[in-house]
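Final report, closing paragraph on structural work. Over the funding period we assembled a curated collection of sequence-structure pairs, and we close with a single example.
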Amino acid sequence: MEQGKKAKVLCLHGFRTSGNFLKKQISKWHPSIFQQFEMVFPDGIFPAGGKSEIEGIFPPPYFEWFQFNKEFTEYTNLDECISYLCDYMVKNGPFEGLLGFSQGATLSALLIGYQSQGKVLSDHPPIKFMVSISGSKFRDPSICTIAYKDPIKVKSVHFIGEKDWLKIPSEELASAFDDPLIIRHPQGHTVPRLVDASVEQLSEWSSNILEDLKNEYVTVPKVLDSDESTDVELAENNMVEQVAA
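Its predicted structure, as stored:
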């Protein structure tokens, strides 16, 4: 991240919704939480292949990132989706973090896990943090043995709903991360409205992220003033004379 620019966050929407819908969902959170970040909301690469649960609530078009069976053990177009997102991140990034809801959160964790194991995004800086809302793990063993092989060591916050049908899978995803922050809420499968305590938790978390990013800036050496420059030249000359002698 260049100094003076906002840290970019790639935000991946849920199944058969859209980037604009996730943007609207996140807008219910206090604006101070992410005001220091540049939030990017792309659409999934495939048009919705069936009915969307937000029909009549939010206007189309709707998209999906990949397709899957009912047991969530077999996936279609996942490799194409991963390739697309990796290219997108390199061309439009770099992105410091990922945020995802449902399918988008599951996919975000996969990208970070794969990157940490050297499988993808070798030409993109390491992702440093993730916000997961109603996420879950992939269940295909060939994916799990790579993506979740080791604890994922990025800062992460996981929103888990008490009435969410993905509550247990969300717990399992959080356990794949090193020292995750878990924020629980009484709602279902949704981006929750945050109570004051949760706003404070998330604001503190995002502030710590920004502080970490600032500490990573390379300090540019100061320009020597004329007196210091003269002293350096004299020292160099003395060294040359000693060597010559």
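The beta strands are 7-12, 37-40, 46-47, 63-64, 67-68, 75-76, 97-101, 129-133, 155-161, 181-185. The chain has one domain: 7-220. We thank the funder for supporting this effort.
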